[in-house]
Amino acid sequence: MVRVAEQVLAYCSQCKMDLSATVVAMRGDQVVRVQCRTCRGERAFKAPKGITDPKQAPPPRTTTRGARTETGERPDHSVAAEWRKVLLAHKDRPLNAYSAKAQMAVGDRIAHPTFGEGVVMKQIHPNKAEIIFESDLKVLITGGPRV
Fold it and tell me: CATH fold of 1-51, please?
């Protein structure tokens, strides 16, 4: 269960990306307002929109209050839950030690000395990659995309 001041993965309408956000307000068990940790903007919570696999269909949009999954539990939108899901999808990839000079591709598993184990989500710039770790989503310097 998520509480105020915890981190969740949310869509930021200012940054136009799924980013780590801090929960500011809740109504019952529902997250209502979040503060983006990148742009520091405070806005209504929007569930993450990004899809890790482009062939995968987007999740069904729910309009009912207190939406629940098929098993009857509330969906978990925390960064740690997304990290576990991505890590499970890429469990067959080898775990490489992080280096600012190493070339990386989307889906590579990285072992960072400070942040722990992560997965490359996307290449942002020729020498930067967005990597999801258990505690947060980070943009780190790389040696460029691997071809």
Answer: SH3 type barrels. (2.30.30)
